[in-house]
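Re: Re: token formats

Sure, here are both.
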Amino acid sequence: MEAPDWWRDAVVYQIYPVSFKDTTGNGKGDLNGITSKLPYLKDLGVEVVWLSPVYASPMVDMGYDISNYREIHPDFGTMEDWERMTKEAHRIGLKVVMDLVVNHTSDQHEWFQDAKDGGSKKDWYIWRGKNKEGKEPNNWGAIFGGSCWEWNDKLKEYYLHVFDVSQPDLNWENPAVRDAVWDVMRFWLDKGCDGFRMDVINCISKTPGFPDAPVADPQSMYQYGLIHRFNGPKVADYLLEMHDKVLQYYPNAFTVGEAPGVKSAEQALPLVQNGVPLQMLFHFEHMYIDHQPGKTCFNYKPWKLTELKDVLGKFMEFNEANGGWDSLYLENHDQPRIISRWANDGKYRDASAKMLAIFHATGRGTLFIYQGQEIGMANPAAWTFDELRDLEEIQYYKAIEASNGDTKDALKQIQRIGRDNSRTPMQWSADTNAGFTSGTPWIKVNQDYEEWNVEAEQASSDISVLKFWKSLLTIRKDHNGLVRGAFQMIDYENQSVYAYTRRNATEQYLVVCSFSEEEVKWVCPVNRGNLLLGNYPSQEIEEDDTLTLRPYEGRLYYLPAMQHL
């Protein structure tokens, strides 16, 4: 019988369906493509497959603008294809998790089509009149640029859209909206869905009264940032109602909520304590360490390793002490490839991919792998404007262009941090278009696919990144202390080495990861024991307490005797 907290031990694999595997030749991935690759995922060592949205959608924001929650977008196939995929996943022991996008809908959804004409569902969305100056109700800026408010001339009111103008926010204050969401959840759970990743779920409650946000950048017409738009006072209430009305009746359902702007484990705890109302959250604090405060992701800030330790270490230690649980992720459909971001995707690409794998898979929490991460996929070398597909990137570029800014620098920033970097097709082989499609891909294929692909890494006589990930996931499954054990940071002040221990009543492990391109001498404060896994072919086990760590070296040790640090 499945344990009620099975999700703590799970390895989750995120699929971005349009870029995973195409079986029709139209250049877009589909559900049958996912079905064809389920054995690959099972062999890799994952237990849960999470699909980014496959619902009916105009695809303005790549499916995060849903026009019908109960239909499949034709590009992905049919409902019968989804059912066949889910049945096959269950047959081989995999669970299927869907994306739940219920902060907003598409403006093409029948609910909003009724609302914008003043129909019975008008109060399903958020409307406000002009302020005293005859302008927008406040200065809130939309995530994708411009104001959060869009004027409707028929109703003589603005509607709120925290994201794009095509994504009007639902009014969660209205019980009818919540009931409609509960119905959507039951629909999918009853069809065999095993749970949900909940998109921007802490956005469903806004600050009462809709006050202006503080203006950090006087040059900006509208204030960027998350204040007042996220983390309103009723987030926990709404999610507890979700638990009471839906989730408690599906006790094995998987739940993770995306929560940008949740800045600490203390703030997150009411949403995840002891697995209620949600099991875990995706916070973004480790993703923000290279962002300038108060500005968009395209404004780079140099960062230090201690900042990363301060975020991840504190989350893990606090949650352990207070009944919380973490999600472990370094990549997803909204973030660039982590090798290009935090390490070296050139000379030390192989070492970087493996070190980051050790770092990623040995933290305290449920492990999430994003498609292609397991083969060391990196950002493309460059983008032209015509190659861009992401709404956020395109609007950023156009804003720079309109202000006579440096568009070359805009493309440079997009290459560094843009969302299209993680959305290039999955690299299955060295065949045309990386074996992703026989047609023209909807987005360009990364130029390095002939070397970095699944087929080549499976056939390699060396320990490829893919083989390394398989070994790491096997070790993780066989050593429960690496999953549920206590987490303790060591040598916090070190700016090159990220080191910590994991331990339970019978096992203790030491993880040592160098984030430096230079050789590092590191004094190890514990008897490091036996090497379980390392990312260099030949390991030099020093005789004294000083380790010589090569560029981006990662080591996982099993400590034979319990030690008190």
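Second one below.
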Amino acid sequence: MCLSYFGRLALGAALASLANAHPAFRGRILSRDTDLLSSYDYVVVGGGASGLTVANRLTEDSNVTVLIIEAGELDHGEDFITIPGLAGGAIGTKYDWNLTYVANPSLANRSVSIPQGKIVGGGTKLNRMVFDRGSELDYDRWEALGNSGWGWSSLLPYFKKSEIFTPPNADIVAEYNITTDTSVHGTDGYVHSSYSPFIWPTMKNFVAAIAELGIFTSVDGASGNAYGAYFTQHSQNPANATRSSARDAYYNNFVARSNLHLITSRQVTKLVTSSENGSVTVTGVEFAESSASARSTVSANMEVIMAAGALHTPQILQLSGIGDSTLLSSINVTTIVDLPAVGRNLQDHVLLAVVNSITAPLTAANLTSNATYAAEMLALYESEYTGPYACATGDFLAFLPVSTYSTAGEAIYAEATTQDSSTYLASDTPSEVLIGYEAQFNLLNQDLLADNSAMLEVLWDDGAYILGLQHPYSRGYVKAASSDPFTAPLLDSAFLHNPLDLALLVEGVKFTRNITRTSAIAALSPVEILPGATVTTDAALEDFVRSNAATVYHPVGTCKMGAQAEGGVVDEELKVYGVNGLRVVDASIFPLLPATHIQSTVYAVAEKAANIIKGSDITA
């Protein structure tokens, strides 16, 4: 059955009413603080991918009670959320935190927006649904930084555990020669992982151009060799070509569990702690609907689990007195645990678009320029679950090592290896964070010229090359701006602070021109619009990068997993240092960004976290 938009609205309203009114559903989806139990075994802060995954897995034991507190709302199945061809449409709406990185002198003093999901399902409701993984080396670096049990071989079972994999349909295989490796995919998970049933025709030109340049194409990028190029999966239900979000996967199917409660439109204002004999324990959370509304509290018998994301988890810790005492003093928050690394180590993939006009009979622009075509394609989608509206973005991705896309690798390497690792970090960076970053810096240098380490993503979009810098050297921070939890935190991406990042992106722009010169792309009569063919010198290209770089929306690392003496905030079991009863399970624990869109990695980390909490980690 395929419900219309208004049909889905009606069904959503009916389910919400049932959840709140029917005795059998009392407490499953809550609307009033008074409906809460006084305590739960686990309180999960954040209802995105990580929070819903952990909550689901913990409540597999019917004797365990879990409350999820989510600042956002439940969506109503709006088309811009459910239809792949409209993916990203929730950005800028009420379902988005609408955050912004602070003005950055390295970006020509620009402020860059950083959308984050404020909705049950989190970023899995806002993103472009790419469901790829990094390479083996990406995760083995985590282990090399001292995090035993967090390498590729340890995470692979959890990538598989989260997934319901469906191979591409026969027509797409025949047309694009897509290959897969079923041994690295799961079929018993909850998130649908499938291929688009429709791919825009000019993608063939890009695929051919990659082959013409002699770039390796992986049998399946999910197999750990995600360098070169590959056809990628999406978080998409192949039965009806709709988004498969964390809410769909980990909550909706289990909403009837009497031990799994969710309350929405509540923002956690701080963690409740107690101290005895010098030992600090988190005993619950305080939350509220708005800055002006009364605070409520709920107790946690076992643990509070932070899953608010890389931008809000550190803010909540700081407002709870867990963080850098100097910062906390400046915002009139009493320090309970002096943990200076909280909020540091912020990393995000840097985005840059190089745009060409092309001549082709059919491109995505037809959906906006031709109303008749758009209506016909929407009808096709609703009746047969195929066509352009069944296609999100990024069906074929190139993740390229430096040696693949640049001839300047040796020069960049020489600059990197003579650089002092601390030079381009913030002047107030704590000493332990400096030590930890030096280890990261040395690892990045060690692999800078490696053939199995991708530095640049290249995504084709009908003439536009969307570049993503995968392993930036720059590091930013998250700082609570005030003691008011309803004031957005200060977010400094530090994009391009380190000139190595600028050089790597300049080389990326040059590489797009190599692609454009292939016969496969030349057949489309491309004309470079941005930055424009006359922009050729390194200085001019640097200006272009500084004036146009933005984010791929993948912030991580602000509660880094690692040794406390090296800037770690959580240990290998994701427990926060110096505090009992508190873990972090979201992307803030990533020590280093992997070269991938991070959605599936967040699920894998959360799946592993749930098993750690339950004492049943299958890779321990």
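Residues 1-27 have pLDDT under 50 and may be disordered. Residues 418-482+489-551 form one domain.
- S.
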